[in-house]
Design goal:
The chain is α/β, with parallel strands linked by helices. The protein has 2 domains: 163 residues, Rossmann fold; 121 residues, Zinc Finger, Delta Prime, domain 3 (Up-down Bundle). Helices cover 56% and strands 7% of the residues. It has 16 helices and 5 strands. The protein has a 5-stranded parallel β-sheet, sandwiched between helices. Helix 1 crosses helix 2. The longest helix is centred in the C-terminal third of the chain and has 22 residues. The radius of gyration is 25 Å and the shape is elongated. Bound molecules: zinc ion. The site of zinc ion has 9 residues, from helix 4. Zinc ion binds next to helix 4.
Length: 335
């Protein structure tokens, strides 16, 4: 799905304001480095600016029209003067940069302009980075480079010094919720998704993911059985949890959901209902909130965070969960 200038402006207002000024004043840099975590719109904005450079009917001096032949081909990834370099396996290899240079030593196929985007630029091998450095030192007029990275600290300082660096900040949950609802996500589901990820794409995938829908049910059920006897909860772990949350990433997801339940219960106790994310479960959560205390909830949240750290250190997930639920039961009538 291609996003327009106006849509992307909601994500990254500061970045787009800068880029708009450069376009209007005809002062586009030879090389940009976009840094920010996944899902902050680095690639989309790189392509947007590329379109602005090639567009044959630019609006107001900066907005690509999204309709001309050039705009359309860039959106579809098949403009002959726009090149995207991505890691080949684990790294970007020197041959990939060399073939880019060979391509750029020729004239533009259709114009004097050429653009290249290097995704995960921090993954360049040392020789690839040195090769790129020479390229950046002698920029061809009409050439624009976009280096995209989640880890700018891993890029050679000599490369950084030749780029204009723009920081991409994660979307605020409010903006994220608004965007999700505009994209057809139910308003009752958007707040939970916005808490779990900074990436709009990932949130939209989760929204229609069967595994994730089931995960929410299992986590809520786990919370419910915490008030029962330890045997019952071990049975529930065996029956539902272990078979659903297998990979490390999935277990983290499950623990994050559990954490959000505790948070919601705290919000209910603090009378901040508008903050809760399990909106569809509101009534059920209100009942749970009556039976617990703020102190207990914050102890339980610490226990979940502690479990996440143990998981990171590769503790056996089964043992980790068994210890966690016993810890979570402390303070219930059975302990
Ligand atoms: Zn256009």
């Amino acid at each position: 799905m291609v996003k327009t200038w106006d849509q992307l402006e909601e994500f990254q207002p500061t970045v787009l304001k800068m880029l708009k000024n450069s376009l209007v004043k005809n002062r586009v840099a030879h090389a940009y480095l976009f840094e920010g975590i996944r899902g902050t719109g680095k690639r989309e904005i790189g392509l947007l600016l590329t379109k602005a450079l090639f567009c044959t009917s630019v609006i107001d001096g900066f907005k690509p029209c999204e309709a001309c032949n050039n705009c359309r081909r860039i959106s579809n990834g098949n403009h002959p003067d726009v090149h995207l370099v991505e890691p080949d396996g684990l790294s970007i290899k020197v041959d990939q940069i060399r073939s880019l240079q060979a391509e750029f030593s020729k004239k533009g196929v259709e114009s004097l302009k050429k653009v290249y985007l290097i995704s995960h630029a921090d993954k360049m091998s040392v020789s690839a980075a040195n090769s790129l450095l020479k390229f950046l030192e002698e920029p061809n007029p009409g050439t624009t480079a976009f280096l995209l990275t989640e880890q700018p600290q891993q890029i050679l300082p000599t490369i950084l010094s030749r780029c204009q660096i723009l920081a991409f900040h994660p979307l605020s949950p409010q903006v994220m919720i608004k965007q999700l609802v505009e994209n057809g996500v139910a308003p009752a589901k958007a707040p939970l998704l916005a808490q779990l990820t900074n990436s709009l794409d990932e949130a939209q995938k989760l929204n229609v993911d069967e595994w994730f829908a089931q995960a929410q049910k299992i986590v809520l059920k786990l919370y419910e059985v915490l008030g029962k006897n330890p045997l019952e909860i071990m049975v529930s772990l065996q029956a539902d949890w272990f078979s659903h949350f297998k990979e490390k990433e999935q277990i983290h997801r499950g623990l994050d959901l559990l954490l959000l339940i505790f948070k919601d219960l705290l919000y209910i106790q603090l009378d901040k209902q508008e903050q809760i994310v399990f909106i569809a479960e509101n009534e059920r959560l209100k009942q749970f909130a009556l039976k617990t205390s703020g102190k207990r909830l914050s102890d339980q949240m610490s226990a979940v965070l502690d479990a996440k750290r143990k998981l990171e250190k590769n503790m056996n997930p089964q043992l980790m969960m068994e210890q966690l639920v016993l810890k979570l039961q402390e303070g219930s009538s059975f302990v």
